[in-house]
């Protein structure tokens, strides 16, 4: 196999008709190039979408109250109601698979500014939360601290503001911590600022205010009412499998008919995340399917060219057979020519694919982040898989011509003009 004469013969055969060899190699190289580019593009899309989920507790559902559509236990249909803090404790007792239950309230965005600091004003979303909410949101404390259970228990009027609000209401080098904001008529002290782990630069990016749930309830007369809940399941449990149990528990607590599908609304983030994961799998399948189809067309071209080469060398093969050369030696010669041509052309496709990916990443770095597309790349496993595909393809491309070559009877081959 490693005979110098054999490799010299392979090079002579492939270089005897350079343009035919180049045209044949192009089909294989183009197939590998397309495969790598498609996989890299899919990975870039996957990275971009995953970045939007970065820092978010994906095994989470959000639940809120709506209007009842059925009468129940003497209560009429069309009734508005609220969750209560006692529902949170009830869920903890009845559904032990839940890791975090965050009751939430908020001030709705309305016309006019709701936050004042000196002569500066702004209109921002304000939330009353428990400290665990930071584990469910894609954010981190950039300066100062987040509120804790001491703030909850003592109903301290403290807030954590987004870095976007700091830019809106403060001078660039001005100290934020310890200052006061008047929020819907009530003064609160700023104890920290946060940044988002995924900042897409939107208009409302990092422009929210968080305060202790109890302080919010006291300042805005919400008593023990809960606007909605963010609920995260423990590792190993699926919130999608638990949401029916969660909803039925609060239905019973709030005296809602068990069959009332409209009274409680929810959004299953885990279900949506799994759909995205399925999309990623589908994209990878399409990339491999299309890339391999293009590659197969190139392999067919290699096989056809090898058949032509065999026909041109019929007399040579007949002489070698007449001189007693082993049929396996002739088969091996044809297979090696096919594999060599396939691997060389495929490696060129891999190199151009890698250079193209490098160029795309350099372009993205120069123009800044692009929504839903980040760092297109292929893993080492993909490159190894491509090499395996090349080797197998080379064997397939040479198998038929090799068998055709050894089926030629020496006497018939010598008569061929």
Automatic annotation (TrEMBL):
Where does it live in the cell?
Cell membrane
Protein topology in the membrane:
Multi-pass membrane protein
Q: Which residues cross the membrane?
A: 21-41, 285-310, 339-360, 380-400
**Where does the record place the MacB-like periplasmic core domain?**
21-247
Species, as recorded: Maribacter algarum
Which is one Gene Ontology cellular component term of this protein? plasma membrane
UniProt keyword list = Cell membrane, Membrane, Transmembrane, Transmembrane helix
Q: Does the keyword Membrane apply?
A: yes
Question: Per its record, how is this protein called by name?
Answer: ABC transporter permease
Please report which protein family the annotation says this sequence is part of: Belongs to the ABC-4 integral membrane protein family.
Pinpoint the ABC3 transporter permease C-terminal domain residues: 289-407
Among InterPro entries, the record links this protein to: ABC3_permease_C (IPR003838), MacB_PCD (IPR025857), Macrolide_Exporter_MacB (IPR050250)
Top-rank taxon of the source lineage equals Bacteria
Q: Name one GO molecular function term.
A: transmembrane transporter activity
């Amino acid at each position: 196999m490693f005979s110098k004469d054999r490799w010299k013969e392979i090079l002579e055969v492939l270089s005897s008709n350079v343009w035919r060899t180049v045209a044949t190699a192009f089909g294989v190289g183009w197939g590998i190039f397309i495969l790598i580019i498609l996989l890299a593009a899919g990975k870039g899309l996957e990275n971009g979408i995953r970045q939007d989920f970065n820092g978010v507790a994906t095994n989470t559902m959000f639940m809120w109250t709506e209007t009842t559509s059925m009468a129940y236990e003497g209560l009429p249909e069309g009734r508005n109601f609220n969750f209560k803090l006692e529902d949170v404790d009830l869920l903890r007792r009845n559904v032990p698979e839940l890791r975090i239950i965050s009751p939430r309230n908020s001030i709705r965005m309305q016309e006019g500014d709701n936050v004042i600091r000196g002569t500066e004003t702004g209109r921002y979303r304000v939330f009353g939360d428990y400290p665990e909410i930071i584990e469910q949101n894609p954010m981190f404390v950039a300066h100062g601290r987040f509120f804790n259970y001491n703030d909850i228990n003592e109903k301290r009027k403290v807030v954590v503001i987004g870095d976007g609000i700091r830019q809106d209401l403060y001078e660039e080098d001005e100290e934020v911590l310890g200052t006061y904001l008047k929020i819907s008529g009530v003064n609160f002290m700023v104890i920290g600022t946060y940044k988002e782990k995924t900042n897409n630069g939107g208009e409302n990016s990092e422009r929210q205010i968080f305060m202790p749930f109890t302080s919010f309830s006291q300042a805005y007369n919400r008593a023990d009412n809960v606007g909605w809940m963010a609920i995260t399941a423990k590792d190993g449990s699926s919130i999608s499998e638990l949401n029916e149990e969660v909803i039925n528990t609060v239905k019973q607590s709030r005296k809602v008919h068990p069959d009332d599908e409209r009274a409680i609304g929810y959004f299953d983030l885990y279900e949506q995340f799994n759909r995205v994961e399925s999309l990623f799998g589908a994209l990878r399948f399409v990339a491999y399917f299309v890339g391999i189809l293009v590659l197969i067309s190139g392999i067919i071209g290699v096989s056809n060219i090898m058949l032509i080469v065999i026909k041109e060398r019929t007399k040579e093969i007949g002489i070698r057979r007449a001189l007693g050369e082993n049929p396996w030696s002739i088969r091996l010669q044809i297979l090696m020519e096919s594999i060599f041509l396939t691997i060389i052309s495929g490696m060129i496709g891999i190199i151009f694919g890698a250079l193209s990916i490098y160029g795309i990443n350099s372009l993205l770095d120069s123009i800044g982040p692009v929504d839903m597309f980040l760092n297109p790349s292929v893993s080492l496993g993909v490159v190894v898989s491509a090499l395996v595909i090349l080797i197998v393809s080379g064997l397939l491309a040479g198998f038929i011509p090799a068998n055709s070559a050894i089926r030629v009877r020496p006497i018939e081959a010598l008569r061929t003009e």
